[in-house]
Specification:
- This protein is an alpha/beta fold.
- It folds into five domains: about 60 residues, DNA polymerase, domain 1, CATH 1.10.150; about 100 residues, Nucleic acid-binding proteins (OB fold (Dihydrolipoamide Acetyltransferase, E2P)); about 90 residues, no CATH class; about 200 residues, Rossmann fold; about 160 residues, Rossmann fold (3-Layer(aba) Sandwich), CATH 3.40.50.300.
- It is about 35% helix and about 20% strand.
- It has a nine-stranded mixed beta sheet with strand order 14-13-12-15-11-16-17-10-18, with helices on both faces. A seven-stranded mixed beta sheet has the order 6-7-4-3-2-5-8, with no helix packed on it. It has a six-stranded parallel beta sheet with strand order 19-24-23-20-22-21, with helices on both faces.
- Strand 13 and strand 14 form a beta hairpin.
- Helix 7 packs across helix 21, helix 9 runs parallel beside helix 10 and helix 10 crosses helix 11.
- About 40% of the residues are buried.
- About 0% of the residues have low confidence.
Amino acid sequence: MNWNSSVSGLWKAGPRTAKSLKKFGIGSIRDLVYYFPFRYEDYSQIVPIAGLQEGQAVTVRGKIELLAAKRSFRRRMVVVEALLSDQSGSVRVVWFNQPYVTKLLEAGDEVFVSGVPRRDMLGFQFASPQYEKIKPDFSPTHTARLVPIYHLTAGVTEKQIRGLIKQALGFFPSVPEWLPEEISAPLSLFTHLEALQHVHFPTDQKTLAESLRRLKFEELFLLQLRAELARMAKVSLRAPEISFQEAAIKEFVAELPFALTKAQKVAAWEILQAIQKKAPMNRLLSGDVGSGKTVVAAMALYNAALNGFQGILMVPTEILATQHYASLCKLLGSKGVRIAVYTRSQRKLFNSRSGEVSETEYSKAQLLKFFATGETDLVIGTHALLTEGVEFKQLGLVIVDEQHRFGVAQRRVIKEKGERVHFLSMTATPIPRSLALLIYGDLDISIINELPVGRKKILSRLVEPAKRERAYEFIRAQIKQGRQAFVVCPLIEGAADAGLGTVDKKSVLNEYAKLSEKIFPDLRVSYLHGKLKPDDKEAVMRDFAKGQIDILVSTSVVEVGVDIPNASVMMIEGAERFGLAQLHQFRGRVGRSVHQSYCLLFTDSDSATAKERLVFFETHQDGFQLAEKDLEIRGPGEVYGTTQSGLMELRLAKLTDRELIRQAKEAATNVAPLIKKYPLLLKKVKEWEGRVHLE
Ligand code: ADP
Ligand code: MG
């Protein structure tokens, strides 16, 4: 038996148990040992029976005097009753629905019983407590200690998994210690093996805390060491030096119809400085919805064009490509910049070079040729740009908008394409700087943490189902005033359309039918979802932008970046189905101009946690706070995307472990240049990277 052996080789783990374990990813002995408890029951306090107190989790050690099973007719179950005594007194114990207890214990046995005693007229009683027979040379597993509790699915019991893990731990007495002494000694960290043992079976709270500290440190240290190594590897890479055309940029800023916020100016300045350098910029631009990232991107792209370099602005959806293309043409239209849009359905070139403005449609081949011969300055496109055969003459800057919306494979290609150019990734997922440093350790970060002045607060309400009619009246009134509304649904089609007989109302098609036929037959209602043909999607979005549609029923495709300043109502159906950060994105679709805007949430869910989440959303406008709440509820993977960052590997460490993060960072920075001196550590990083990249 070794780390890689199957769990089915363990004593008492047959094929059935192995199959159940497989369901939560446990196949080998190693998997088992790295399946950590999610909490502990503290039964470490052993008290004399006479000293029992109501409601306190404790263990008693005693001898079984009587043991008998009875069928309880009232409760329709088997009840095992026992009397347990020690020198100080005796206590009653009952087990409900566990007839097998009579096979495992008998009168005369010495046992530990752990649980919370209750007092009734006859004195104290333990109901269905944990129990363990005391044998010579025995250390308790389920009682009389800090007892680990694991997340389980059907087919395996806590008792079983504890027993299996205890056996498994016996199979690797020597785990090589890969953390250099120079790091572990000053921080007095446990060895890896000590930590593994104590995380499952801690002798007390202190060893538990210490083992968690070591394991968390490992995760944080490896994450940051990897980032540090990546950063070092990049130092030798070269990107074009794009010099800062200060006068032209100042003029551009002066001509904008608004004044840039301070945060926008700082971010733009940081970016323009960074792309002057030989080392490729690798930067994250994080700013809440509506904070004005596009104009910052436009400045960088314009600056590149002024230097004769080409730029790419890559977006996750056709809709967004269309919109960015329109706004960049507007922003840069008088600047002699040649702007292309390249998606599956749109291939156009906007040219104002010769002083005259022209917009021409081209074939795919023609446009590709223009990229390759340098006859475009910047191109806005979807991942169609990533397909093979797209070549550029003088690529200098790649910007990715809403990068979290790209798939893993796509992100990898983008990253590779971006190796020898400057790279900027924009996200509206608000992320505090300290956390960003950890997650995107090898990226530099610019944060736009303020909204343009004059933005009105968006009023958000969780609307009771009974008040739905009034919400519709409200929408009608808004439209009468000239505004427009979004209705977001979690699904495209309801179950009825899929022929399942039951009607799931909260789908785009069902809601569209209802709103257009019954509720607002006199208004212009349309719909949008990801499965429509790109041309149709574009047409709908264009009509909505032109004000030719009053109400747009849509799936989450409108989440991303769409800008319709005249829209003032965002109504969200099935709101419990969306994460807080995503709801915040929806809400960010309105309130983009002077009109007071509203976000109306609907849910049919009775769940208290769903309600709590939505109420939190209703009362919080700040994207950072929402992101933190989301983090708390759904974990970092869901909120920030795990795959590229290796956040998945943070199984124990929390983003709030600030001090440990700092210590791990310091250790990683110190050790990275000396990594060759530590072959075991290097091996560990590689092994870990291998796992991360396999996702
Ligand atoms: P996001 O950061 O969500 O991508 P956008 O770049 O789409 O935000 O900007 C949202 C809206 O705010 C756009 O209509 C844009 O023209 C406008 N805008 C950007 N910066 C400012 C500013 N400093 N003052 C006023 N309006 C601005
Ligand atoms: Mg945007």
